[in-house]
Q: What sequence folds into this?
């Protein structure tokens, strides 16, 4: 025993002298990022069978439990379930004079359990992490005690991990305190969600929600200044309470939730490069927390991480969806967003941002384009014809001047043509529903499309009506009568209702179309004016038979109200 103590003290002294010297492979842990660490203390009844294998790092305590896991090939770190025993609570903090001794006691326990003189120590958990400043005297002492404990553990050669159940609410919570913590410890954000709410949304929306929560947890710490390597995410698979399984059935649905959590964490790692991913919820602490499906869920968890870690064939029911790509962000290079109607490219987003001066508006404009293009495509020949008319009218038929203007504005020829196509589509679609209703209709369709969208980093555009041509007036049409040719509409939808599929529409007529409104019942109709045209030439209203129209663009809500109060003959005189 004396010989063991001498060796221990010698090693620990070296650790104090150079606490970071062995960081690359502390306690035999892999030199990799992130490291995945699974809660596996004595309360996890299946720990040896599921977590006791190579490729697994188990967070546990006690020499017997930890030794058994290591004998089966797992690596171990130390788990301290009750941080408050060493630092007190916000209302009753520990005497600061006792913190160093408490940290030394904790370090010795962790070193013995881990069989390592530079142990990793998970500390469960910081209480009241969202407490606003200025803190009360007891809360301030509690935070000071926590920091002192972490500093002492790090000085002894440990790597502490402070578990935090909520996002710090900076700046009302002290960013300085969190940065001091990050100098000596990792901060692990517990990101727990209720499985029924996630699974009910389906893999696409459910995965999106998981990723957003995890990304937000990491982003709050990054914004404070915490290095990504010092950030961890903890996933929750508890069986009782408001998070985790929450009585979700059938088993396949519960396993789907487990799988989607792991896939979401993998995505966040690829974006943020956090240092660790942890899992919690495998223990049984009392009869209400017992769940016979825990071993199956843990196996699926490991399988989703790496199929070689666990064979799910014996535990997953036949209706469990084994796809590891459904609902995930898997976009082709250069694609910013993918929707059922088409894709938004990063290059187009960059160019639109340059033109509009706002990335958010550019994103909305491109979303609007994709949705409207699904209703109305512009054939290449007709697009080029429209472009030629613009060159003729705006650039004196000199294409070199046209290209020079594009170069001056740093936009490509392809982007310019896409803007012209946008304008052609609008000239068809707007008259179908009227300018005011057009924005409402297209925004509704965009909102629907976003339900099936997948975007990089879940950065979805907002629905709206944004015209890129408003910033590039030379790409708008010189006048309605100056554009000739035909536009074909292969797909008619809710925006372009009233025009049959594959109908050839002359661009000149298309540009001259106008929306007129019955002055009796308000029915709208598209008209193509001719020389000497009068509103009465449209004929009777198909809804009410009234003969009297006005251009929708000339009417206001006030004028509509005034006209409808007049006798029919006076309304007609206004319109004719």
A:
């Amino acid at each position: 025993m004396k010989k063991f103590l001498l060796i221990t003290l010698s090693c620990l002294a070296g650790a104090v002298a150079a606490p970071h010297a062995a960081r690359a492979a502390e306690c035999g842990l892999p030199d990799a990022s992130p490291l995945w660490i699974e809660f596996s203390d004595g309360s996890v009844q299946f720990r040896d069978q599921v977590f006791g294998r190579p490729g697994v790092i188990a967070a546990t305590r006690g020499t017997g439990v930890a030794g058994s896991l290591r004998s089966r090939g797992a690596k171990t770190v130390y788990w301290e379930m009750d941080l408050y025993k060493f630092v007190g609570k916000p209302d009753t903090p520990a005497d600061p004079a006792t913190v160093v001794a408490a940290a030394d006691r904790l370090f010795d326990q962790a070193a013995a359990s881990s069989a390592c003189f530079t142990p990793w120590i998970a500390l469960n958990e910081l209480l009241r992490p969202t407490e606003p400043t200025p803190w009360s005297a007891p809360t301030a002492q509690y935070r000071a005690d926590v920091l002192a404990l972490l500093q002492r553990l790090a000085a002894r050669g440990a790597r502490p991990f402070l578990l935090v159940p909520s996002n710090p609410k900076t700046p009302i919570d002290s960013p300085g305190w969190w940065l001091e913590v990050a100098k000596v410890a990792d901060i692990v954000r517990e990101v727990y969600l209720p499985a029924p709410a996630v699974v009910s949304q389906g893999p696409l929306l459910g995965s999106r929600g998981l990723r957003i929560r995890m990304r937000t947890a990491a982003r709050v710490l990054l914004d404070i200044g915490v290095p990504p390597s010092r950030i961890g995410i903890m996933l929750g698979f508890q069986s009782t309470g408001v998070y985790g399984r929450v009585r979700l059935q059938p088993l396949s649905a519960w396993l789907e939730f487990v799988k989607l959590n792991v896939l979401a964490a993998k995505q966040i790692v690829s974006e943020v490069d956090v240092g660790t991913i942890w899992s919690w919820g495998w223990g049984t602490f009392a009869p209400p927390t017992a769940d016979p499906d825990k071993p199956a869920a843990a196996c699926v968890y490991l399988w989703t991480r790496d199929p070689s870690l666990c064979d799910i064939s014996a535990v997953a029911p036949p209706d469990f969806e084994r796809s590891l790509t459904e609902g995930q962000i898997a976009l082709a290079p250069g694609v910013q967003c993918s929707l059922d109607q088409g894709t938004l490219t990063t290059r187009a987003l960059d160019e639109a941002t340059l033109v509009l001066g706002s990335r958010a508006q550019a994103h909305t404009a491109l979303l609007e384009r994709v949705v409207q293009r699904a209703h109305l495509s512009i054939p290449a020949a007709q697009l080029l014809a429209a472009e030629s008319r613009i060159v003729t009218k705006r650039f004196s038929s000199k294409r070199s001047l046209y290209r020079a203007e594009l170069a001056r504005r740093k936009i490509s020829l392809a982007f310019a043509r896409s803007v012209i196509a946008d304008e052609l589509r609008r000239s068809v679609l707007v008259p179908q529903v009227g300018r005011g209703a057009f924005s409402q209709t297209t925004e509704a369709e965009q909102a629907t499309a976003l339900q099936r969208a997948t975007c990089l980093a879940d950065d979805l555009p907002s629905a709206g009506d944004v015209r890129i041509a408003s910033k590039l007036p030379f790409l708008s049409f010189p006048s309605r009568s100056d554009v000739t040719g035909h536009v074909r509409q292969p797909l008619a939808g809710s925006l372009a209702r009233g025009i049959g599929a594959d109908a050839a529409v002359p661009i000149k007529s298309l540009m001259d179309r106008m929306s007129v409104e019955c002055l009796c019942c308000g029915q709208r109709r598209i008209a193509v004016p001719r020389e000497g045209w009068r509103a009465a030439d449209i004929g009777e209203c198909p809804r009410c038979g009234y003969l009297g129209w006005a251009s929708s663009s000339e009417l206001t809500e006030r004028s509509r109200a005034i006209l409808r109060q007049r006798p029919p003959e006076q309304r007609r005189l206004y319109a004719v």
Notes: The chain is about 45% helix and 15% strand. The radius of gyration is 33 Å. The longest strand covers residues 75-80. The first helix runs from residue 2 to 17.
